[in-house]
C-alpha cells in the first residue's frame, strides 16, 4: 500500500512547484552524478520530511477504507487534464462514480 501511495504522490504531487534555488552560480565537476528523480511530496533524502512516516498512517487507513468499501470508476468522456497552478487539481474537475462494494458485487 505504501508503494502505491508513494507512486501516486510521485506522479501527482499535491504541490507542483519546487521553491529551492541556487544562491550563487555553481558548475558541477565532470563526472558528478545528479539524480534524475525527485520525490517532491516529502522531498528526497537526506533532507526528507521528518513526519513522512507519521503522515502515511492515516493516509493508508483512509485509502484502505475507501478501496475496501467502494468501487470507483472515472465517468466516461471525462478528460483528466491537470491544471497549471501551485496546487494540483484537474482543469475541469474529475468526475468519478462510486458504488458501495456490496451493491457492486450484486451486479451481473
TrEMBL record:
Keywords assigned: Heme, Iron, Metal-binding, Monooxygenase, Oxidoreductase
Presence of the UniProt keyword Flavoprotein in the record: no
UniProt KW Phosphoprotein keyword: no
A GO MF term: monooxygenase activity
InterPro entries named among the record's database cross-references: Cyt_P450_sf (IPR036396)
Superkingdom of origin organism: Eukaryota
Cofactor: heme
Family: Belongs to the cytochrome P450 family.
Name of the protein in its database record: Uncharacterized protein
Amino acid at each position: 500500500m505504501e508503494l502505491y501511495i508513494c507512486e501516486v504522490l510521485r506522479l501527482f504531487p499535491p504541490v507542483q512547484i519546487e521553491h529551492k534555488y541556487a544562491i550563487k552560480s555553481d558548475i558541477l565537476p565532470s563526472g558528478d552524478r545528479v539524480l534524475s528523480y525527485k520525490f517532491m511530496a516529502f522531498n528526497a533524502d537526506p533532507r526528507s520530511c521528518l513526519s513522512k512516516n507519521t503522515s502515511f498512517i492515516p493516509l493508508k487507513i483512509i485509502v484502505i477504507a475507501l478501496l475496501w468499501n467502494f468501487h470507483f470508476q472515472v465517468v466516461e468522456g471525462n478528460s483528466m487534464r491537470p491544471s497549471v497552478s501551485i496546487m494540483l487539481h484537474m482543469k475541469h474537475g474529475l468526475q468519478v462514480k462510486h458504488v458501495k462494494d456490496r451493491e457492486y458485487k450484486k451486479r451481473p
